[in-house]
Amino acid sequence: MDDAPVMTAARLTLASRAVPSDAVVTRELDGETVLLNLDTGIYFGLDAVGTRIWSLLAAAEPLDRVLATLLAEYEVEAAPLEHDLLALVAQLRGKGLVTVSPPDPS
Known about the structure:
Structural class: alpha+beta
Largest sheet: 3 strands, antiparallel
Number of domains: 1
Mean pLDDT: 89
Distance between the termini: 37 Å
Strand content: 15-25%
Low-confidence stretches: 1-8
Oligomer: single chain
Number of strands: 5
Strand order of the largest sheet: 2-3-4
Number of helices: 3
């Protein structure tokens, strides 16, 4: 039996922080961004809104603050935006483009 600790991914919530992985380089062109993970060769394209989200993630703010900023900047309802934000971050994490940290203990 293997006694090595099991590594689990941090649960993704609005209290989580998602920051770009160290191995990721970006290039922005005409408001859109291409992300490239140098370790895996995986690349990912972001449209203008995704590019804005990426810039907010780079500031290492909790996702609830990212959501609040986006709600102030775009004319959109909170529930679909929250869903889309969490889905994008989950997709970025799955491709090794961001690292998700659990919420800070209060």
